[in-house]
From TrEMBL:
Residues 6-69 form the Metaxin glutathione S-transferase domain. The keyword Transmembrane helix applies. One of its GO terms (cellular component) is SAM complex. Keywords: Membrane, Transmembrane, Transmembrane helix. The keyword Nuclease does not apply. One of its GO terms (biological process) is mitochondrion organization. The gene is Mtx1. This is MTX1 protein. Pfam families: GST_C_6 (PF17171). It comes from the Eukaryota. The lineage of its organism: Eukaryota, Metazoa, Chordata, Craniata, Vertebrata. The chain crosses the membrane at residues 104-126.
Length: 148
C-alpha cells in the first residue's frame, strides 16, 4: 500500500508539473527545492527494490525536471538524463571504471588526515631516544629474565 501511495504521489506531482520547467513557472520556488530533495535521491540512488525508482523514470517530465536542476545548480555532477544509462546500454557497475581505485584513495586520504591531526594536536606522539615512560630506562630482555 505504501508503494501504491508513493506512486500515486509521484503521478500527481508529474501532472502538476506538466510541461513547465518549475512548479510555479520559469523560476524555482521553495516547493521546487523540497520536491527535488526527495526526487533526486530516489532517481540517483541504488535501491534494493527499484519499483518506485522505475515509476519515477517512467514519468519523463519529473525525470527531466531533476536532470535540469542537476545540470543548472550542480554542473560538476553532469546532470545525466534518466535514459542515458539505458540508451547506451551500460549497467550500474560500468558507470565508473575507476570506482574501486577512487574508494581506496579516499580511504587513504582520510587515514592520512586523521593521523596528521592526531600528531599535530598531540594526541599521539613519537618519543625518540633510550628513555621509556616516566623517564625510566627501558628494561632490556636480559634484565627481565634475571628479575623473574
Amino acid at each position: 500500500q505504501l508503494y501504491r501511495e508513493a506512486q500515486e504521489c509521484l503521478t500527481l506531482l508529474s501532472q502538476r508539473l506538466g510541461s513547465q520547467k518549475f512548479f510555479f513557472g520559469d523560476s524555482p520556488a521553495s516547493l521546487d527545492a523540497f520536491v527535488f530533495s526527495h526526487l533526486a535521491p530516489l532517481l540517483k540512488a541504488k535501491l534494493p527494490n527499484g519499483k518506485l525508482q522505475q515509476h519515477l523514470k517512467s514519468l519523463q517530465n519529473l525525470c527531466n525536471y531533476c536532470t535540469s536542476i542537476l545540470s543548472l545548480y550542480f554542473p560538476w555532477d553532469g546532470g545525466e538524463s534518466c535514459l542515458l544509462l539505458h540508451s547506451v546500454g551500460l549497467s550500474e557497475g560500468e558507470e565508473d571504471p575507476h570506482k574501486r581505485r577512487n574508494q581506496l584513495l579516499s580511504v587513504l586520504v582520510g587515514l592520512v588526515a586523521m593521523l596528521g591531526y592526531a600528531f599535530m594536536s598531540g594526541i599521539v606522539s613519537i618519543q625518540r631516544g633510550g628513555m621509556g615512560p616516566a623517564g625510566r630506562q627501558p628494561i632490556a630482555m636480559e634484565e627481565e629474565e634475571e628479575e623473574e
